[in-house]
Amino acid sequence: MARKNLKRGLKNRHLQMMALGSAIGTGLFYGSASTIALTGPSVMLAYLVSGIVIYFIMRMLGEMSVHEPVAGSFSYYATKYWGGFPGFLAGWNYWYCYIMVSMAEITAVGIYVNYWWPDVPQWLSALICLIVITAINLVNVSAYGETEFWMALVKVVAILSMIFLGAYLIITNPLGYPANISNLWNYGGFMPNGVWGLAMACVVVMFSYGGIELLGITAGEAEEPDRSIPKAINQVIWRILIFYVGTMFVLMCLWPWNQVGMESSPFVQIFDNVGIPAAAHILNFVVLSAAVSVYNSAIYSNARMLYGLAEKGDAPKVFMMLSARGVPIVGTLVSSCITLIIVVMNYLFPSQIFMYLFAVVVISAVINWVCITLTHMKFRKYCEENGVHSKFKSILYPLTNYVSLAFLVGVIVMMTQIPDMRLAVIALPIWLCILYAGYRFKVSRHNKSNVE
Question: Residue 224 above 50 pLDDT?
Answer without folding.
Answer: yes
